[in-house]
Design a protein that fits this description.
The chain is mainly alpha-helical. It is built from ten helices and no strands. It is globular, with a radius of gyration of 21 Å.
């Protein structure tokens, strides 16, 4: 009985220790997801501009497209796609080229965007599907997904990867919404066409600047 009791105590001690490690790892994942989601990047620069140009309500599909699109991306990356890119360097180069071209095009559109009232019915924010698809050519989104899987789901089991993806979606949604709200707060100041033009050009420049880490990597 004493031996059985000792064994049970050892098992219980190991279980508590493992649970504590899991808890610490989960907290670390929350911090990683928040810091990478809330810091400046292509998604947040575009949401800031969209909030200023279209307001929060019209930008909601864009916000949801980012959060859900990145969640799906993280799942797919965690279940093996990252390995394919690491194994075939040409895929990495191709992705960089496509990302740079697409981001430059978005920056050009943003810089030359007129105020919604001036553009009539042609000016509209990014849709849910467009925002979700954009994650696949967003260098920061790739870095976030690959980094999260490597650090918090190295076993690449479906359950572990799913937790990482779900945490990112839950943390990402309010984090990126802050940028949209900040953009909406600027709307009154941007009623002047000249100020809006300067703002859009600045956002376009910051969007291009976010490509620098990709180009010098």
């Amino acid at each position: 009985m004493r031996l059985q009791s000792k064994v049970c105590n050892l098992l219980a001690s190991d279980l508590v220790k493992n649970c504590a490690m899991d808890h610490d790892l989960f907290l670390a994942l929350l911090v990683f997801a928040f810091v990478t989601s809330v810091t400046p990047g292509p998604n947040n620069m575009m949401l800031l501009a969209s909030g200023a140009n279209f307001g929060f309500a019209r930008t909601v599909p864009h916000i949801l497209g980012i959060s859900i699109g990145h969640m799906v991306m993280t799942l797919i990356v965690g279940l093996g796609l990252a390995g394919a890119f690491l194994a075939v360097p040409a895929l990495q180069i191709g992705l960089k080229i496509v990302s740079v071209i697409y981001m430059l095009w978005l920056a050009w559109k943003l810089a030359h965007a007129a105020a919604p009232a001036e553009a009539g019915g042609s000016a509209r924010p990014m849709t849910f599907l467009q925002a979700a698809a954009f994650q696949w050519v967003n260098p920061k989104a790739w870095a976030m997904s690959v980094g999260a899987v490597a650090a918090y789901a190295p076993d690449q089991r479906l359950a572990t990867v799913a937790v990482v993806a779900a945490v990112f979606a839950a943390v990402n949604l309010p984090s990126v919404s802050i940028w949209t709200l900040a953009g909406r707060a600027l709307r009154r100041w941007l009623t002047s066409p000249a100020r809006l033009r300067v703002f859009n050009w600045t956002m376009a420049a910051l969007l291009v600047a976010s490509l620098i880490p990709v180009l010098i990597e």
